[in-house]
Specification:
The chain has about 725 residues and is mainly alpha-helical. It has 25 helices and 13 strands. GO terms for molecular function: calcium:proton antiporter activity.
Length: about 725
Amino acid sequence: DVPKIPDSCGDSDGPRRGSLCDRHCAAINNVQGDLGDLGCHLHCPRVPPATSTPSCCQQHSEEVCESCVVKTTLTAENAVEANKLSNNYKFGFKKWKSHVTARPWEDRSEIVKELYSDLNVIRGSGGSTLTCGNVLYLLLFGWWLSLLYILVAAVMFITVMGAPYGQLCWDLAGYFLWPFGKVIQKVQVPKSHQACEAGVGESSALLGGPTPRRWHPRCWVGTGYWHHASTAVWLCLGYPVLVLAHGLVCVTAWLLIVLIPVAKLSARATSRVLLLPPERVLIRRLRMTEVPLEGEVILCCYRAANPYYYKYAVDGINVFAVNLLPLVLVTLVLGYMDSPNHLTGSIVKFTLALLSIMPLSYYIGMAIASISAQSNFAVGAVVNATFGSITELTFYITALIKGSREGNRCYAEVVKSALTGTLVGCVLFVPGLCMVIGGIRHQEQRFNSRSAGVSSALLFLSVGGVFAPTLFSKVYGKLICGECHNVTQNPLGHYLCHNCHFDLMDNNGTLYYSHVQPLVYTVSILLPAAYLIGLFFTLKTHTHIYDIHISDCHMPGHHHSAVVHWSRWQALVILLLSTLCMSACADLATEHISPILTNSTISQYFIGVTVLAMVPELPEIVNGIQFALQNNLSLSIEIGNCIAVQVCMLQIPILVLFTIFYPTNFTLIFSDLHVYASMFSVVLMNYIFMDGKCDYFQGTVLVMVYFILLAVYFFAPSPSGC
């Protein structure tokens, strides 16, 4: 939300023309840079006008110049943010967009400052209050809240002793019907009896007109008995009803996110306005040309809705993740307390468990980013390698355990479909969607093709290694068909066969146990080794590929120490609790997926490659979209590539290792559809990323190919064993 710093290269009078190098300088704004939210910008070589220092193009060839201008210097607000920002560009580290430290208030934009305001600031000119959001408030809350205040006011007047609070509720009924452009102030009670008779009859240039008369107990009874009795009646009959109503409004408005100002309005009214003595509450309508009145402003609201509240965060946690956290509790309570499915069915519990994975993935991601940013490289690498794939592995392992206990091979096939769906989705859908959304704001986006090439090479290696046992089985396996029919009615003619597969268990499984299984174990050892070599290559010996440099100097005005949202221990506790809840939700999802697999008319292939594969990756997709909108497509592409590489080089070997200690039906033999879809996706992705630049059209191609593959999975027959 920080305003972007304009970048410029070359001379002050505009980019030079003529050479290829100068055109690279003119286009340097398209090179990746984590702008805006991270407060970072690019530094380009500039030549002062008064000097005659030869330019980069005069000193070096065009190829050398191209390599030197794309170097990116990133300036962070503090050392922790700089470490987190640097981790985003490291291979194998989780890419995280949000801040892990509290941003200084003075550096935030006016839009973001308004999100965190307490609705007690009077503006000079609020503009028209007749907006769509205000009308929506009137339709959803205003009319019945005002009617409730009128009913409470009637009850208070009937009790006689609560008459002062009845007058207050009558005034608040008009306020909550349309609170926009009105102000509630806390005023001082006049000490003289004349003030009681005149009723605080002061006039204000801000609010205009005399103060409306309100019943004052002191004017009626000289002692304080009446005041205490009136307060007791109010706290017993009026206040609890209004607290429940405002609580309902607060929760509903908070869940709608864009109506969070209404939630703040209700919360502040409950905690401040309704607990004040009636004679100290002053309600007036504002006028645009008036000056502020002396006295404390309790409530002053102009807008009921604000579309920028998707940026709102509570202790560094995005409001969406905060709102979805109660869903996790509901899922766990409903799943384990209602085992016989008396309250809800399996489909509802499966859906809730799957939706609960999304906020838990967010908390796990932020905890990993917080720990990595506050630790050294070794600790960060261990945490990322250990917990980076915990979301997917938790679900896969629980599904395999359930399938093994029930003797159902369908769970293993669903896990293979989910693995393939994650691979295809992260190679096609994630970068394609980021290209489309980022291309709406930026005509052409550039990225570091060298760093993308490293991930692509590892992806080629990993896909080849994962599908090597499958290809081996098709070459040496025995083709077995369920039924065959002679098409030509000639014994020597053509036969049409159904339900064919390659049998690896012929001759007591000699082919599988003597050849295929050792190959699977060999691949499961080589793939993690290749992953470690990739880490060493990109993070130690060839760090210059990424050309990332964190400046020693912080942004102007940043001389304070970093205030982290979560300390290392706090992040570790949240990480462990989120992992535990993730395991419980994955157990519930696998427990209630069986009716969906057996009774659904949709192919199990489609369920695996869509719902089970992409729902846990939604936080990563959101991160990629945010990077693309900030013209940082390199990180958007790396998000998809890193997930795909981790699927092949870490998740699958771990599943194979798990089957050694806990025998399951999982074997590293994939169907033809999985093999062809994965290989075609990787080839297409490398072709698109070859030139180091892209636009929304290329992103559309990737997304369309992904949807075509989904259609193929949708119409494909269910795998054998399901």
